[in-house]
Amino acid sequence: MKLDFESSKPIFLQIAEGIEDAILSGAFPEGQQIPSITELSASYKINPATALKGINLLVDEDIVYKKRGVGMFVNNGATEKLQQIRRDQFYDSYIASLVEEAKRLGLTAEDIKNMIERGFNK
């Protein structure tokens, strides 16, 4: 995970997204422990409260859970849940505006499909 201290995106969000990415890639399988707040803050030289805020986002979304005195672990079903969240975000961020613009340009669904296939074949 790499943090961009120059980004306008808050560090705690970058922490949460970095852990989400690691879960989706299989680096942190379901049931496995993730780095502790102390490990994150030491590794990235950030305030522990910042790391905690990022982890708490994942706890609130039921992606990770706390085992008192042991650490934080990836919840069962977290991968599927994250995939669905990311799919919904992908639709909202990209597809909805793409379809809107396609309609303004008079493009059909088939035209868009062909363009997407062309992009995948590059």
Structure, described:
β1 and β2 (71-74) form a beta hairpin. The two termini are 28 Å apart. The chain has 2 domains: 11-76, Arc Repressor Mutant, subunit A (Orthogonal Bundle); 79-120. The longest helix has 28 residues, at 78-105. The protein has helices at residues 11-25, 37-44, 48-60, 78-105, 109-120; strands spanning 64-67, 71-74. It has 122 residues and is mainly alpha-helical. Helices cover 62% and strands 7% of the residues. Residues 9-77 form the HTH gntR-type domain. It comes from Hominibacterium faecale.
List the defining traits of the structure above:
single chain, 122 residues, 5 helices, Arc Repressor Mutant, subunit A, mainly alpha, elongated, two-stranded antiparallel ribbon
In short:
The protein is mainly alpha-helical and 122 residues long. It contains 5 helices and 2 strands.
Give the SSE layout.
Layout: H1 11-25, H2 37-44, H3 48-60, E1 64-67, E2 71-74, H4 78-105, H5 109-120
Antiparallel strand pairs: 1-2
Helix pairs in contact: 1-3, 2-3
Protein name: GntR family transcriptional regulator
Organism: Hominibacterium faecale
GO molecular function: DNA binding; DNA-binding transcription factor activity
Distance between the termini: 28 Å
Shape: elongated
SSE arrangement, N to C: HHHEEHH
Kindly state the number of beta strands: 2
| Biggest sheet descriptor | 2 strands, antiparallel
User: What is the CATH fold-level name of the largest domain?
Assistant: Arc Repressor Mutant, subunit A
What's the number of domains? 2
What is the helix fraction of residues, given as a range? 55-70%
**What spatial order of strands do you see in the largest sheet?**
1-2
Protein name: GntR family transcriptional regulator
Pfam family, one: GntR
Keywords: DNA-binding, Transcription, Transcription regulation
Domain HTH gntR-type: 9-77
